[in-house]
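Sample entry (197 residues):
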Amino acid sequence: MEVAPGAWRYAAPPFLLAGPLGLLSPLATLAALALGGAVLLFFRDPDRSPPSDGVLSPADGRVSVIREEGNRVRVGVFMNVTDVHVNRAPLSGRVESVEHEPGTHRPAFSKESDNNEKVHIGLSTCDLTLIAGAFARRIHPYVESGDELARGERLGHIAFGSRADVLLPASFDAADVEVRNGQRVRAGETVLARRDD
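Predicted structure, serialized as tokens:
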């Protein structure tokens, strides 16, 4: 099983403690091993096969935001702790900016999450915002300005619960959105929006 970069940093402590805990209790050893395994499962990074066209979901989870912002449409995906947390590029394009914005750590599904810690990734084709949640204190972008990304390519991950928003290109409107609130989506495979040109 492939895992996201840095996964072993979180999984190693419970695995290393499993041996010494065996002196106290076999159950403590099992609990430590289970915790380490759960951490690796959380950081799993499966391969994905993008469809031929459309704006792809940047994250696994449920659609939690669809709203118009000026002449653009925002689609947000909430990731709970059981979802894959590796994020992918919705469209091919050049990375124009990667900006960290400090903030709070409210639950990522709530309205207050708009004030949470974020990383904004500006692509030449669309804009992506990775939002930390109540337990997600680390956003790990893999990209920097000047990188060229293919549609569906990995661009970062968020540790332990979060949200990923796509601000669609200005050429898209609400009628082009193909998902609905509450719908389950998969990063790099589910089409969020498509234009019939």
